[in-house]
Write a structure and sequence with these properties.
This protein is mostly helical. 75% of the residues lie in helices and 0% in strands. α7 runs antiparallel to α8 and α8 packs parallel to α10. The radius of gyration is 31 Å and the shape is elongated.
Length: 269
């Protein structure tokens, strides 16, 4: 055999060895471990219990593997719907932007496949809550807040008898407050910049869209102040009076009472 032939043969052997090694590695990486339940246990039940255990221990990827085996391998399992929820919860638990997106996808698929399931309210709540935990501070973009409000409103409308309703309403109030606080910041910016028409428009919008806003005493006061600056004193008096009536404690209460007295005296015959 010539030296050239020997080198070619050696290279071919090296290539085949590398190819075989890669195939073996790929096969091992893509083959899930076979779960064998104890004697007498149903495989899907055993997998589901393992998934719940991993979920409680915050082993998100392991829990997801068990739940996925049920949804993919046991379509008739009584635990298939709950395993779908488990997939959503395990994705939510990871807490990344990508995993939040995956969690919402799993919960939406659950509602598409099981719209009348006893845990449908839970799935809808978890969609809303996933958006809720992504809400940003009032000085930042409020897109996640708007999505949380949208999904929480759906929950309240569809599941009025759910045990989760009080919690959903509490979260809805918090989300609405966050959005209104964001609008209030803009209104105050316009007020301090002395662009009173812009402030009036923003503050009126808050009262129209969120009449139960927790911090509406601020809205009443600065809306009234802006209206005074634009010589709309009749409407300004109404907002000062609403502040005094609705709030027994407020940092603006003393000033509002003073303004009410001043405007009433000014307009009295």
């Amino acid at each position: 055999m010539s030296i050239l032939t020997h080198l070619k043969t050696k290279r071919i052997r090296q290539f085949l060895s590398a190819l075989l090694l890669g195939f073996i590695t790929f096969s091992c990486a893509t083959t899930s471990e076979v779960i064998r339940p104890p004697s007498g246990d149903e495989p899907d039940v055993y997998l589901y219990n393992l998934g719940l255990k991993a979920l409680s221990e915050e082993k998100w990827s392991i829990a997801r593997e068990y739940f996925r085996q049920i949804t993919d391998g046991y379509p008739q399992s009584i635990h298939r719907a709950d395993a779908k929820l488990g997939l959503g919860d395990s994705n939510f638990g990871e807490g990344s932007d990508h995993s939040f997106t995956m969690a919402i996808s799993e919960f939406r698929e659950f509602l598409a496949f099981y719209p009348t399931h006893r845990k449908a309210d839970y799935a809808q709540y978890r969609i809303a809550f996933t958006h809720f935990v992504q809400m940003r501070s009032a000085d930042r973009d409020q897109a996640p807040t708007r999505l949380a409000i949208q999904e929480l409103n759906i929950f309240v409308e569809r599941y009025p008898n759910s045990e989760l309703l009080p919690e959903a309403r509490s979260k809805l109030r918090e989300a609405r407050d966050r959005l209104s606080d964001s609008e209030l910041r803009v209104g105050l910016f316009y007020y301090r910049a002395r662009w009173y028409p812009g402030a009036i428009q923003r503050l009126r919008t808050i009262l129209r869209d969120d009449p139960d806003f927790t911090n509406r005493d601020s809205v009443y006061f600065y809306l009234a102040e802006s209206l005074v600056k634009t010589e709309e004193e009749t409407e300004a008096l109404l907002h000062y009076e609403r502040l005094v009536k609705d709030f027994k404690q407020s940092e603006y209460l003393e000033d509002a009472e003073s303004r009410v007295t001043e405007l009433r005296n000014k307009n009295s015959p």
